[in-house]
Structures are given as C-alpha cells and as structure tokens.
Amino acid sequence: MKKTVFSIAMALVFGFSATAKSPIDGEKKEVNVKESKITWKGYKVTGSHEGTINLKSGHLVMDGNKLTGGEFVVDMTSITNLDMAAGEGKEKLEGHLKSDDFFGVENYPTAKLVITSAESMNKNSYSVKGDLTVKGKTNPVTFVVSIYENKATATLKVDRAKYDVRYGSGSFFDNLGDKTIYDEFDLVVDLAI
Question: Which residues form the signal peptide (predicted)?
Fold first, then answer.
C-alpha cells in the first residue's frame, strides 16, 4: 500500500512539473549584459556620429534551438559617442543626445524591445518582428537575428521620427539645409547568451 501511495505521489509530482512549462512558453536564455554590445550610428548631411549604448537586461526565448521571443531593456542614460575625442564636443554631443531635443533620458531612462514573432530563414537566421518603445512611444520593427552558439547578432534601422525625436529632422522642420539630421539611425547589436 505504501508503495502504491508513493508511486501515485511521485507520478503526480513529476506529472505536474513536466507540464508546468509548456513548449510554447520556451526557455529563457539570459543575455550577459556586460559581454554584450550595442553600437549606434546616426547620419546627417555633413557626415555621421557613432557610439555605444548599454543593455540593462535581456533574454531570448527558445523552443529547443529555435528562437520564439525575447525582451530587452536598454539604458538610455549610457549613450556615449566614440568618433569624437574629449574636448572636440564629445561631452556636448552626448549631453545633447540625452536632452529632450533627442531621447529625453531624464524622463525616459530606458527603451525596450519585445520580440513578438520569429520566423526561421535558415539554420541560424530569423526574420523577427517586435515592438520597440522609445520615449514612451511603441512602434513595430522588423529585423534579422542570427544566432551562432552563444552569440546573437542583429542590425536594426530605427526611424526616430516615429518616436517624436525631432531635433534637426526634415520630417518636422523645413529649410534645414546642411543642418539636417536624417531620421533613420542604425543599431548593431552583439549579444552574449
């Protein structure tokens, strides 16, 4: 009798633990934020600027070896410029990018990307759709993610006008001439997972 009760109890415990996580939920693979890197590049009529921004947290959701989702939070207060040396306006540019003219990091210290779907293109690459939130505004984005062992890479083109980042934008102001800053900027993401 004791064996039967024990067998039933074990079956219930293992049965519940096996069904507690369905395959649709997937497995969260935490991103190593210290080893990951996000590089940005913005363009203007007279050239470009580039720098880095830190990932605050993030994970990919995997169903076996297949990408199914993910969520990332970016620390907007960490925006840095890499193409200007100190004393050449580097600090001024970084301060301007953090100001309300651009990303308003005092009121919006983080940005967020939520992967809503991932369609396999081949063994290592996915066509990904997600929702990107910047300055409290959320818009859909589409990009390609490639995963190789413990690394994932992606390149996103972001239209800042959709997030009310207006400074120097031809979408909001006329006759800017060579002071125009293009709306699209690039994000190159290298994740350590």
Answer: 1-20
